[in-house]
Amino acid sequence: MGGLYDNLISTMRSCKAISLMSQPLSFVDNDYPTNRSYLYLLVYVDDIIVTGDNDNLVQRFVHLFSHQFSLTDLGELSYFLGIEVIQNARGILLSQRHYTMDLLARTNMIDVKLFYRDSPFPIHAFFYVDWAGNKDDFSSTSAYVVHLGCNPISWSSKKQHTIVRSSTEDEYRAVASTAAELNWFKSDFRAIRNVPLTDNSHPGMASGDSSSSTPTLDDVDDCVTVRAVDRRNIYGSTCDTEQSVSSLENVENDNQLKRKKRAKTSVVWSEFTEVVLPGGIRKGECIHCKTKLKITGGYNVLPALWGQFSMLKMREFIAHWVLMHEHPFSIVEEEALNNMMKYGIPEWTPISRNTCKNDCMKVFESERQKLLTQLKGVRKISLTTYLWHSGNQRMEYMVLTGHWIDDHWKFNRWVLNFIHFPPPRSDVAIADAIFKCLMDWEIEAKVHTISVDNASSNDVAVKVLKDNFQVIGKLICGGKMFHVRCCAHILNLVVQDGLYHIRHIIEDICDTVSYINSSESRLKVFAEIVQQRRLPFRKLILDCKTRWNSTYDMLTTAMQFRLVFPCLKERDLSYHYCPKEEDWDKVEKICPILKVFSAALNLISGSDYPTSNLFLKQVCTIKIMLDSKSRDGDQFIQTMILKMKEKFDKYWGECNLLMGVASILDPRLKMRVIEWAFPKMYSQAESQANMDVVRDALYEVYREYVDASKASTAACASTSTGGAIQEVGEGSGEAAEMAKNWDDFSKYLDVVETVEPTKSKLDCYLGEGCHKCVGDATTFDALTWWKANSTKFPILSTMARDILAIPITTVASESAFSAGSRVIDTY
Predict the structure, then answer these.
(1) Residue 416 near residue 422 (C-beta atoms within 8 A)
(2) How far is CA 352 from CA 318, 330, 333, 338, 811, in A?
(3) Residue 563 scores a pLDDT above 60
């Protein structure tokens, strides 16, 4: 934009024109004031509107500027940026009537009445603010309109960038923006002062005597009005520009921000009326006996202040507020915040940023102790880790997240560590950092599995960790299920191999979308072609370079307009990115393939944390699709699928034990799922061998849990026996004898119950039929089923709880580095 601006200025200087101080793109001929001529330029991206009172000056500019750039003369202005331009013999009319009526209807302001004060040449500014009107992010929308006489000359309506804390602050912002707009007009009018302007529609301006009825812009400073629009009413008064328009204090004194008094809702007001006594004292008068009672203002006091005020408690809440919303520590030193708190809470004491920092550290330590206590009761914990490189800081960070299901069958996932990872980043250093974090939390003997992406450095780090954990405690299934590869990364690698074959097509479509969306005139032409073709209008989507699923969304959306782009090329000679017809045929064949991957990715990175039993279905679906497409008659599809299959088989060619075991623990699937899926994914010999491997692993894990349960039961029995002996020794008589008898029964019960029956609970579970869902099968929750059947399958339900909590993706850890909305957790 800087180059275009400089060329505009240099071109006009070559015309011997000078620019106005208030408007750099407003010019006056060098012969001014004897033979003054004005030229105005409006630049929006690459569109330029040229107007003035001298046709020769306009044509001279167009001729000179056409040598600088490729310039196309579109003729007289008719429509631009949503404004309709109507030309007649008297001048031009700018109209946004339809847009304005829709805006008023949406804001319930159709019946708003505007009142004008008679003045020689008044400027009226009306503003309105809808505090926290957006239900998605609770942001506010402010608007203003500036009238010159009876004609609107400037208006704006936009959502505010920040979320304000009160309606008063919201309205102050609206007043400030309105006052800034008025000051801009003042400076603009001063630059072209003494130019006569007539408005025959205004009273007192129809006389032929220009000295008395035709005011100049010098009169503008004497009559400027700012009013606040409040749905049905307009509050405000006329104020002198120099004293009030740019001064928010006078706006407050004139009650610009005053709102209607809230209606009384208490039932007591059906028997009382409010009266004002001399001195402004308000009391309630009984309508029967005329007794006057004092009106208490209890409803004006914050509920949190009903009782003893504690500044320490307020500091704790402020620390939570700063941490939760990621505010800077310096926010507590802002003057407006302290003024607001002091007004609402007289006992409020301002705090410094250092105090806030120390309070936040205390909150962190308190939460850390709570988590440490909670982790002591966790049996097994699964980990995800992710390394992230900050390009701006040139530093690397590592995040470690823990996942488990508690005794109430609720998912828990906590960021255990978020550390700076200094160079050099070796494989062993990654393992040491993870192990040190686990020792700090005292959970090194409780690690179940670890999920990482497919970087080669992670393979070595996981091997080192596996050896360390084998020494400390026994890993599940001999460590065969310890290393979990991230499904999201594997899918991404497979898709990238496929998209590589159409990279030039993707570039053309991406350039096409950018070209159309970069200019409103192009977008208008595009929309007109869409309407002519009677296609459902949808906005074009631009992809994100690092997310292939956004590329899929861009391709599917662009496919709907494949007939529009050739027409756009015929109308716009500067458009050189139109894909060919054979390119669209390739995109049409690839989109169904990408759709299968997109559905799997949506499950993996969905808002609800997915359990591990859901992934075998997605992998099987992708495998079946790739095998089917590999036999396609199209040579292009065969070549692309071959590359994708090679990558798929590299990671999932061998049987994945975790996916198989987790799917069997889904009561809807059980062993039937691998009996059905494996023959579709592998050859006949491989499928039978893989089914045996999964079955053996399932029974091996179950035996480990049975042995652990026996050891836990024996330890509890030994502890309770020791306690019972002490109890008997201290007691006496019949009570002591009764306790001893029941202790003997407890010993007998422990011996009998620990004897393994001929048919295990796992055999009983697999022998029962699969659970059939009633209604929508997608709403079924395996954890809820296991919770309801935990008394029937006590050991097996514990095993299912630990395995279903294993994350198949590192999305939970990656979300810690997301600058936008969190994928898994809000905070």
Answers:
(1) no
(2) 12, 8, 6, 11, 37
(3) yes
